[in-house]
């Protein structure tokens, strides 16, 4: 089974609490999501491979380690995943970005694809799939199927909030994938919203409601 990491950190709890507040506007919401993504990326990137290099300090030649961030691909699930993209890119600036547009059919709650544009993936690429809200797990499973169909192998999911139901759905279908989450909430409601959650993350990011 892949790793399940829940941040459980006072700074993240503080920032998530502000994001949950319905009075928090899009500017602050975006900034906080970006900050939390930076903190999550720090943890999720621990497993990135490094290669040894020689470095000449002003005193002596020594060994250093470098991450090959050209072998990292970030896949934000449109549209809310875009809110996490800059946070990852600021730490791995040369990563490729694969865009995947998926929406949730309001009747069936199943994922429907509307846009796919990926860089070339190879076996040794490290892939970070981003969606702030892991609710039913259907969109995430769909995204993971797409990433794997394009050759993706070393995959880490990063989310802000998750429902226990969604985590289980993803772990059952993709037991090889690591999951990094800022906080795990109580449950889903009848409309597949995360409870207590923060509402619709896309609408909160882009003031579409
Ligand atoms: N997507 C959201 O944006 N919010 C939820 O609560 C569930 C899915």
From TrEMBL:
GO biological process, one term: uracil salvage
Source superkingdom: Bacteria
Gene Ontology molecular-function annotations: GTP binding; magnesium ion binding; uracil phosphoribosyltransferase activity
Cofactor detail note: Binds 1 Mg(2+) ion per subunit. The magnesium is bound as Mg-PRPP.
Pfam families according to UniProt: UPRTase
Keyword field: Allosteric enzyme, Glycosyltransferase, GTP-binding, Magnesium, Nucleotide-binding, Transferase
SUPFAM superfamilies, sorted: PRTase-like
Family of the protein in this entry: Belongs to the UPRTase family.
Annotated protein name in UniProt: Uracil phosphoribosyltransferase
Organism (species): Oceanotoga teriensis
UniProt lineage: Bacteria, Thermotogati, Thermotogota, Thermotogae, Petrotogales
Gene that encodes the chain: upp
């Amino acid at each position: 089974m892949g790793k399940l990491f829940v941040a459980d950190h006072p700074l993240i709890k503080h920032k998530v609490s502000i994001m949950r507040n319905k009075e928090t506007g899009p500017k602050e919401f975006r900034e906080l999501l970006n900050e939390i993504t930076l903190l999550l990326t720090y943890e999720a990137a621990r497993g990135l491979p490094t290669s040894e290099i020689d470095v000449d300090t002003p005193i002596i030649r020594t060994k250093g380690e470098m991450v090959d961030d050209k072998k990292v691909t970030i896949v934000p699930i449109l549209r809310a995943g875009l809110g996490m993209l800059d946070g990852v890119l600021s730490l791995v600036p040369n990563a490729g970005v694969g865009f995947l547009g998926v929406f949730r059919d309001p009747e069936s709650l199943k994922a429907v694809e509307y846009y796919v544009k990926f860089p070339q993936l190879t076996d040794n690429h490290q892939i970070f799939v981003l969606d702030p809200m892991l609710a039913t797990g259907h969109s995430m499973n769909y995204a993971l199927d797409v990433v794997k169909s394009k050759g993706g192998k070393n995959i880490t999911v990063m989310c802000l909030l998750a429902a226990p139901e969604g985590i289980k759905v993803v772990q059952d279908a993709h037991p090889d994938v690591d999951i990094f989450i800022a906080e795990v909430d109580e449950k889903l409601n009848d409309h597949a919203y995360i409870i207590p959650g923060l509402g619709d993350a896309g609408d909160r990011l882009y003031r579409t409601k």
